[in-house]
Specification:
Structural class: alpha+beta
Strand order of the largest sheet: 1-2
Radius of gyration: 19 Å
Order of helices and strands: EEEHHE
Number of helices: 2
Amino acid sequence: MRPAHNFGPDDHTLRIDQVGPDGKVVARIQQPFTRGTALADLPPGRIHVVQSGNSLWRLARSAYGDGVRYTLIFEANKDQIRDPDLIYPGQVFTLPRVN
């Protein structure tokens, strides 16, 4: 089921209710989420939005064929990464081109 209208960038909560035959809610689940702004002004293929389970090693292996090259991503995004072992879902990283 789709919402009746589009939600803009902001904090929201998605809630799903299970309703019994009498119309009363018997179960509920809800999940907060933040909808960000579109990244339309960034060049295609040069960015990556971090997903749960990503690591710099995995990103480098996928982008460059070798996990050891994670340092390229780290150096290009030092302003966002305090510890290369800790990256977080939702971070947007530049993946530098390699000649």
